[in-house]
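Researcher: Structure for this, please.
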Amino acid sequence: MSLTQTLFKRILKYEQISTSDSNMTTLVALEDNIYQHELRIKYLEDHLKILMNIVTERRNEKYYQTSLEKMLGASHKVTKYGITDISTDDFHLEIKHWNNYKSALGQILSYNHNDNKRLIVAFFGECNRKDDIIQLFQDNFIDVWILHDTPDSIAIEKFEDGRSSVLKIIRQYYEHGDKKDFVKRTDIKRLLRANGIHLSLEQLQHIVLKCFPNAVYKENSRLNNKNMRSFFTVLKPKMMS
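Model: Predicted structure, token format:
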């Protein structure tokens, strides 16, 4: 029985209100007023829960950031697009509750706009969509860490499929070019193999085109030189200083 029904019965029992039309109108209005107060209380309770979750998440972000700074020997960095949670010479790392994965994605990509670093997002808390979120970040060449509390510190569960490292190498040696520019597929595969990375043709195409959206993959079986048959246009090697 709801609070409204309980109060309504008590009013009938103890106040002995008659069932005349005028008194019934008053009674209905009173019941409606009580119901409106119930809704208001429910709204305030829900709002309080939301505020408490926000406070908890912010407190936890700071806790995990401090812990990881000690573990990694690193700190935050000021970039053109904001302040990272943790940065080193090799990577940017953003710390977020699973519920905030969308903001984590935008922030970590913006911090790396003028850099060429490995990207990592470290998540904490509970979530029933972890696999989907991990896949989303890995498809954008971002490694995922899951932070677990331990009695003395935190433990890190790492989901790294190597694509972020491949991206860094490709960006280090190639850049967008003009329509007349091109890079042989075999040259890129040779570069990656020299760094201990072996990719299928489909994987290589996906990563290069993700890295350089204006590039176009082409094949020309009529060429006698097999090494020239597959190439990426609108792409060129970087001029190394």
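Researcher: Any notable elements?
Model: The mean pLDDT is 79. The longest strand covers residues 142-149.
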